[in-house]
């Protein structure tokens, strides 16, 4: 699976959009981008995933650049409960195990 | 639907003792994973099952760790004998098993070896 690079930490004001970047410059054509988050003392929680097109669900939006070398997870209106570590993961089609990096620690400020 | 259930939630043991963790995946999920998460790090895959067969155990320290998934449903992970560096959260996850489906995680078991 391709390696991902994320900032170690980020801050966001409550009510504002949180934009979490991820670099995956070595991604190949059959690899998906997944985002998970882990709130303190809980297991990781699935957020969203995509291959080429931008994706949106009730939790977030995923924007993937045209060359697929980077992506951004957008939480449109961050709340204090969104404070967590966010993991960007690249996974090859067909492989089922996720390989986690260190993630980005997002702190939502009141 | 019910989530992934794990027990116990916390466990404290002395080094060289043995310990076992239990996981009940989401009903109908063919794939089950065990991850180890050391404080401050992302989860690391230990073993992956597809039904009751092992798909990947390349990162499982087989001299002390063992896992089984009888009847393709519940799973247990055992450590014998435990070392201080085994202190971590042990996470179980499950998924449908078809490609590109998400995995659902349990709350984990926090193990402290003293």
What attributes characterize this protein structure?
heterodimer; A: 110 residues; mainly beta; 5-stranded mixed β-sheet; 4-stranded antiparallel β-sheet; globular; B: 114 residues; 7-stranded mixed β-sheet; 11 strands
Provide structural commentary.
- The complex is a heterodimer of chains A (110) and B (114).
- Chain A has 110 residues and is mostly beta strands.
- Chain A has strands at 9-13, 18-23, 31-38, 45-50, 55-56, 61-64, 70-75, 84-92, 104-109.
- Chain A has a five-stranded mixed beta sheet, with no helix packed on it. A four-stranded antiparallel beta sheet of chain A has the order 2-7-6-5, with no helix packed on it.
- In chain A, a hairpin with a 4-residue loop joins strand 5 (55-56) and strand 6.
- The radius of gyration of chain A is 13 Å and the shape is globular.
- Chain B is mostly beta strands and 114 residues long.
- In chain B, 0% of the residues lie in helices and 48% in strands.
- In chain B, strands 2, 4, 5, 6, 9, 10 and 11 form a seven-stranded mixed beta sheet that branches. In chain B, strands 1-3-8-7 form a four-stranded antiparallel beta sheet, with no helix packed on it.
- The model of chain B has no long low-confidence stretch (mean pLDDT 94).
- The interface between A and B is medium-sized, with 22 and 26 residues.
What integer is the average pLDDT of chain A? 93
Range of helix content of chain A: under 10%
Q: What level of helicity do the residues of chain B show?
A: under 10%
* H/E element sequence of chain A: EEEEEEEEE
Low confidence ranges of chain B: none
What is the radius of gyration of chain A?
13 Å
- How would you characterize the largest beta sheet of chain B? 7 strands, mixed
Work out the radius of gyration of chain B: 13 Å
Sheet with the most strands: spatial strand order of chain A = 1-9-8-3-4
> What is the assembly state of the chains in this entry?
heterodimer
Major sheet size, sense and barrel closure of chain A: 5 strands, mixed
Greatest chain-chain interface?
Answer: A-B, 22 and 26 residues
Helix/strand/pairing class of chain B, anyone? Answer: mainly beta
């Amino acid at each position: 699976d391709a390696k991902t690079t994320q900032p170690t930490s980020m801050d966001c004001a409550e009510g504002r959009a949180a934009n979490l970047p991820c670099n995956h410059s070595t991604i190949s054509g059959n690899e998906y981008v997944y985002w998970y988050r882990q709130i303190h003392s809980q297991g990781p929680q699935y957020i969203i995933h995509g291959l080429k097109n931008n994706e949106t669900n009730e939790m977030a939006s995923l924007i993937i650049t045209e060359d697929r070398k980077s992506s951004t997870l957008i939480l449109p209106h961050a709340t204090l409960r969104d404070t967590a570590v966010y993991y960007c993961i690249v996974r090859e089609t067909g492989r089922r195990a996720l390989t986690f990096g260190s993630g980005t620690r997002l702190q939502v400020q009141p | 639907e019910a989530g992934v259930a794990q027990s116990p939630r916390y466990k404290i043991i002395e080094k060289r003792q043995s310990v076992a963790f239990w996981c009940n995946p989401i009903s109908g999920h063919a794939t089950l994973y065990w991850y180890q998460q050391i404080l401050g790090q992302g989860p690391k895959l230990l073993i992956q099952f597809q039904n009751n067969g092992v798909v990947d155990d390349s990162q499982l320290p087989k001299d002390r760790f063992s896992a089984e998934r009888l009847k393709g449903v519940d799973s247990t992970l055992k450590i014998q004998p435990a070392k201080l560096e085994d202190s971590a959260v042990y996470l179980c996850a499950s998924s449908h098993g078809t490609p590109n489906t998400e995995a659902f995680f349990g709350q984990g078991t926090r193990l402290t070896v003293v």
